[in-house]
Amino acid sequence: MSEPATLVPHAQSAPPIRERVKYDWIAYLYLLPAILILVVFHILPAFYAFWISTQGGRIRAFRFIGADNYLNALQAPEFWGALLNTVWYVVGTVPINIALGLFIAYLLFQKIRGRGVYRVIYFMPHVISAVASAIVWAWVFNPTGGIANRLLGLLGLPEQKWLLESDGVFKLIGQGFGMDLPGWLSGPSLAFVSVMIFAVWQALGFDVIIFLAGLTNINAELYEAGKIDGANGWQLFRHITIPLLMPTIFFISIISIIGSFQAFNHIYTMNIAASQPLGGPLGTTRTVSIFMFDQLYSQQRAGYATAIAILLALIIFALTLVQFRFFERGGQENAQ
């Protein structure tokens, strides 16, 4: 006896080739405005910047010199000094911002009274104009009558020159304890540390908000299960919060490092407000961005400044790749 035939529904026929081509063209038409914006404002300027970096002379009097601008930058002590200052800035702001942002976000994530008000207070510095707030902070660090020196006076500590001080902060601390540290251990200048204090204050609110968003996505049942198993607050934070927040930490670290390498507005504003030259006292607050700005607008060396900008972009790109590999490896180890 033959088996009954199985009814197989007819598969939906694919649209004709002409209709598919028509749909593809419609999709490209929708993408065309975004593509034009990317080409006009991102891709073409990047190629134009590379072209300028191969030119010598002043604006409107360019001459082709090849890779000389790159070689001159890599051989210039000023460039390496500015890069060292930039590294000090990144090291002195990014880890502190991430640690403080995570700590404050974890506190504000708890059920406390008025936490909505606290969230607004912490986020306000990030909303305020960086230039306006930098001017206020320059007044705070004013060596004659500034709030910072008044607080030091109340604590019985000697007054400091803050934005006018070119000596390293570690050297100044060592002198307070009667120690004479060598130059390579002097650290960033006190003027640069003053700029870093402002940078931490200004960027902290953004990190807190992002961490709060990451904490909200963690399933509360995981904490309840951990408490049932006898885990204390530190163990919950270490074994649940930190591993599940790694994508958020990765995002904040990427954004913070890129932003720190490109920092300019508040450094420039605080130097000008303190009546200091563009690079601060003895060039101790001259980052790569400040050095590039000085070469472009003060020295009128457009090709050299553009070469410095491209070198900075390559450094940021390399550091971003390293961070991707580091966090990818850390995620694989956590998964195992």
Give a structural overview:
It is globular and about 75 Å long. The longest helix is centred in the N-terminal third of the chain and has 37 residues, at 17-53. β1 and β2 (63-64) form a beta hairpin. It folds into 2 domains: 17-53; 68-335, MetI-like (MetI-like fold, Orthogonal Bundle), CATH 1.10.3720.10. The protein starts with 16 loop residues before the first helix and ends with a helix. A two-stranded antiparallel sheet has the order 1-2. α5 (130-140) crosses α12 (265-273). It has helices at 17-53, 68-75, 77-109, 115-127, 130-140, 147-154, 169-176, 190-216, 220-228, 233-244, 246-261, 265-273, 288-298, 302-335, and strands at residues 55-56, 63-64. Helices cover 70% and strands 1% of the residues. The protein has 14 helices and 2 strands; from the N terminus they run αββααααααααααααα. The model has no long low-confidence stretch (mean pLDDT 87). It has 336 residues and is an all-alpha fold.
Morphology: globular
Distance between the termini: 56 Å
CA-atom Rg in angstroms: 27 Å
What structural category characterises the helix and strand content? mainly alpha
CATH superfamily of the largest domain: MetI-like
Level-2 CATH architecture of the largest domain: Orthogonal Bundle
CATH class of the largest domain: Mainly Alpha
Strand and helix order: HEEHHHHHHHHHHHHH
- CATH topology descriptor of the largest domain: MetI-like fold
The number of distinct structural domains comes to 2
Taking all residues together, what is the mean pLDDT? 87
Unreliable sequence segments:
none
Strand % is under 5%
| Annotation field: number of helices | 14
